[in-house]
Amino acid sequence: MSDEIVFYYNPMSRAQMARWMLEEVGAPYRIELIDFEKREHKSPEFLAINPMGKLPTITHRGTVVTETAAVIAYLADAFPKAGLAPAIDDPARGSYYRWLFFGAGCIEPALLDKMFKRPEVERKSAVGYGSYEDVLNTLRNALEKGPYLLGEKFTAADLYVGSEINWAMMFGAPGLKGEAVFDDYVARLTARPAYKRVAAVNKPA
Ligand SMILES: N[C@@H](CCC(=O)N[C@@H](CS)C(=O)NCC(=O)O)C(=O)O
C-alpha cells in the first residue's frame, strides 16, 4: 500500500482546487499530468482508476478518491496537523459538512445552470438548489458574519466554496464580483501562501 499521493492533474480543471488543498496540507504528492487534448482522461488505464474519466482524481494508501469536495475533505482528515477540519466530535463539524455538501450539491449546479443558460424547469421545488438567487443569498448570509464560513477559522470548506466563487467570478457569473462580501472573501482566500504557490506555477510564461 503506497503512502504516496498520486495526483491526476490538468491545470485547466477543477484539479486546481485539489492542488491548492494539497499545498495547504503540505502533503508530498506526485503529479500525473492528464492531457485532455490527447484524451488521456478517457484512456483504458485512467478509466480503470476513475470510470468517470474526470479530474481531480487521487490515489492514496490503496484508495481512489474522486469528486473535488471529497478529495478536499479526505485530505483535511488524512493530514489533521494542517487543522483544516473541525474535529469529529466538534459541533462545528456539522457546519463544515453543510458547506462542503452545499458547495457540491447546490453551488456547483446553480452556477453551471446559470452560466450555460439552461432553461429553468417548471417544478422549481424539485430543484435541489432552489434558485440561483437563493444560493447567493445563503452564501451572502453566511459570509456577512465572516470572515470565514465557520467564523474565525479557515477550513477546507472555505477552500472549496471559495474556489467555486472565485471561478464563477472569473467567468462573469452574475451577482458576485463587485459585491464587497464576495470580493473580500475571495481576496482573503487568494492571499493565502498555498493558493499563491499554485497560481504562480500555472502563470503563463
Ligand atoms: N463531479 C466532479 C466533476 C469533475 C469534472 O467534471 N472535471 C472536469 C474538469 S473541470 C473533467 O475532468 N472533464 C473531463 C471530461 O469529462 O471529459 C467533481 O466535482 O470533481
TrEMBL record:
This is Glutathione S-transferase family protein. Belongs to the GST superfamily. Gene3D superfamilies: 1.20.1050.10, Glutaredoxin. Residues 2-83 form the GST N-terminal domain. It comes from Microvirga brassicacearum. Residues 89-205 form the GST C-terminal domain. It comes from the Bacteria. InterPro entries: Glutathione-S-Trfase_C-like (IPR010987), Glutathione-S-Trfase_C_sf (IPR036282), Glutathione_S-Trfase (IPR040079), Glutathione_S-Trfase_N (IPR004045), GST_C (IPR004046), Thioredoxin-like_sf (IPR036249). SUPFAM superfamilies: GST C-terminal domain-like, Thioredoxin-like. Keywords: Transferase. PROSITE patterns: GST_CTER, GST_NTER. GO terms for molecular function: transferase activity.
